[in-house]
Amino acid sequence: MRLSFPASAGLLAAALLAGCAPMNTTANVPPLAGTAWNGVALPGGDPAAGATPTLRFDKDRVSGSDGCNRFAASYTAAGGTLAIATATAVSTQMACPPAVMKQADAFMAALGAARSYRVDGGRLHLLGADGSLRATLAAQSQALAGTRWRATAVNNGKGAVVSLVAGSTVTMAFGADGRASGTAGCNRYTAGYAQDGAQLRLQAPATTRMACPEEGLMAQEQAFLQALQTVTAARVEGNRLELRTASGALAVSLQREGGD
Hints:
Helix content: 10-25%
Shape: elongated
């Protein structure tokens, strides 16, 4: 006997089979290159106050802070798989409080154990070989409008990035109106700016005309104002802002005001 079924039954069966098919998760594994993240959930709990780990993925290098020291390592990522070569990472060697050092060790161990990743709702989840969650990080905004910074180092125009003159303060605030302003150490300045993703351009600054007698202050101010005009890119990582030239050289390094 030949059985026949209405067409609607066939459609229902097809729908049920489709529902059992594996879901396409491509949307959850976007490329990592060019992204930056801040740790929000780490092995052992939330990040210690003032010691948030960070990650920034470039083409084939990942860099950031473990909450205490800066580090950089090579990595590979494809189709949701991830391997970070923490065994050959380079790092600064600062000593931090025991709780922060413990967190730093746990974070680096989590990076080394990561074998895959997914991105959901602006969160990066690092997963171990068994699929267990090793760390969760939140996307780092690169938008500068409405942010305020203080400089920590300036390119002196002679091929070196130097710390500020002791006791001096250089600041930078990015207004929502497309104007950046602050103190260059002696004089106030203002300059138009335009940001497009990682690209940043600053117009020649206009300044007040005071003369300051402190040794080195005027030379530092001139170097800072000239460095601003060489900037073509900005990268925010945690509470750090780096302004860089077209060649990738560091023009100005800044720390978020009120940040750790």
